[in-house]
Amino acid sequence: MQRLAGKVAIITGGANGMGEATVRAFVEQGARVVIGDIAEEQGQALAAELGDAAVFLRMDVTSEDDWASAVAAAQKLGTLNVLVNNAAILHIASITDTTPEDYMRVVKVNQLSAFLGIRAVIPAMKEAGVGSIINISSIDGLHSQAGISAYSSTKWALRGLTRSAAIELGQYNIRVNTVHPGGIFTQMGGKGMIEEEDINKTIYSKLPIPRVGQPEEVAAVTLFLATDEASYSTGSEFVADGGWFAGQRGNGMPTS
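That's the Glucose 1-dehydrogenase sequence above. Prediction below.
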């Protein structure tokens, strides 16, 4: 049996990268999906490929009107009961070189959008009597590094938003969780700029799983949270990082 049979989802940033992998995984498991993205050409092509199981909506995730349109589009497909807040942007610069405008642009896309999305889907999910909201954070929402002050701030903020929403919405059988990808080989993660073999050697060779992650591996975690298999998980954080947080093999240290 398909694990998402009968479910309808909105997936933001769904036209490429992890979002596209998530859309494909959901459709494969029986869901019908609204693909929300500003990348019209890619989004329309993906929806056309997937047929009746998906529709594309050009969506500015910082717009309340666009969120209302996304909910309306989802309800035309059936009962809306899954939201994946995946849309995000990355700004790399030192704090001194990050302007307030730069910072707030990242906040609006990465953080405000998730808040707006949660608000937008609550009435439909309450009516349905069940829902799963999945906010895609990052390992940079669990630690941080130089040069990503805006990005990391928003990914940390999603954790607080998620827990607060989980507390409020659990009484309506609406679950809210975060997924924390590590380095994933998408455009944001270096794809198109560096070969996969090279990025494995330079960055990931000492991880417990010594390679960069694939978007399908994160999509599998998100898929689980969307299913009824995760019915007792809310306000929780699910990490897919190849063991980044477990630690790394050190030079000269014994290993099996």
